[in-house]
């Protein structure tokens, strides 16, 4: 099948490449000529495990092309994905200017029946706006479909190739069957394709992200509760996670969520609710808790050093908002580091892949270590912000020799408090009791 994807950002590039991997003929469009030039050389503009070799393999097989020629893409394709950004506006609402601009471009170049598939995360009612925009440019028949993505940064290729479910929002039976045929290679193991109305499909993505963000903030608030009453959030996580009604995922307390989805989507739902006269009290609390949680890790450091960090070097492990990505958007590390800098600390930070993006955020305000142990040399404390695998089982003896004082602030509860105490560390986790042993 002939597929066009508008937008070579995270969602568009992964989606287009994975469709090419299953044998479809895919052309990806972007207005950024520099990005297109790099992609035409087989260079991946984002860090995502497994994606770059897949791009190169499908380009060599002539199944995947990159262009800035919108006309060529629209005229060739039957299926046209819109996968451009929907950044939050100042009021938290999703900005649809890029989505609607692509819709206008599609309408200008249509030469026959097309299926326009909105892959971007957009508020309810966006499909109606896309349809109206295209109708203003063409007399050709077309359908607009909502097809939200559920890609997790760091595992996006697997999520796309082996999805838990596929959501298709359309009221047209013929269109639904065409999309089911297009997606057939991804669901050979029997995972479901759900057909629903457009507005329900648009809302499903927001509801999913809002639910996951709520679980994270729930656990983070209970972590604060645990620190006051002398309970251990890790023991509680095990206790409630074994309940089949709750499950084990997204129950880890930590330094707060970040990234391009949860913060933006929670804000967008709050704003959309306000537009329709519905106050989203719960999600307003989720956002408030998350913002406060990002500040808590720095507060622990400041309390330990009695608010005096002048002349003290603080090592930071982990800068990206989560492991297996270089994405710094809304990363807790930004809040933590800026707060420590404000109080006079000298920061030396390490991250396996996010040093370059971090430089765009912090510039020369902090020092960047090429090795995680290098960051520790002479530091008054280690602050762990992102749970990369290489931080899970470090050489604690070597760490103690390098640190000026054996102090660890663990923003992801990677380490065992009792073992850290036995090794001679002052250890501070999130919602932990130092005398408790993790299971």
Describe the structure using short key phrases.
439 residues, globular, 14 strands, alpha/beta, 16 helices, six-stranded parallel beta sheet
Structure in words:
- The protein is 43% helix and 13% strand.
- By secondary structure, the chain is an alpha/beta fold.
- The strands form three sheets. It has a six-stranded parallel beta sheet with strand order 3-2-1-4-5-6, sandwiched between helices. It has a six-stranded parallel beta sheet with strand order 11-10-9-12-13-14.
- The protein is globular and about 70 Å long.
- It starts with a strand and ends in an 11-residue tail after the last strand.
- The mean pLDDT is 95.
Estimate the helix proportion, in percent. 40-55%
Supply the number of helical segments: 16
What structural class do helix, strand and pairing data support? Answer: alpha/beta
The geometry reads as globular
Question: Unreliable segments (pLDDT under 50, ≥5 consecutive)?
Answer: none
Order of helices and strands: EHEHHEHEHEHEHEHEHHHHEHEHEEHEHE
Beta-strand residue fraction: 5-15%
Mean pLDDT: 95
Number of strands: 14
Query: Distance between termini?
Result: 50 Å
Which strand order does the major sheet show?
Answer: 3-2-1-4-5-6
Q: What is the CA-atom radius of gyration, in angstroms? A: 24 Å
Most strands sheet = 6 strands, parallel
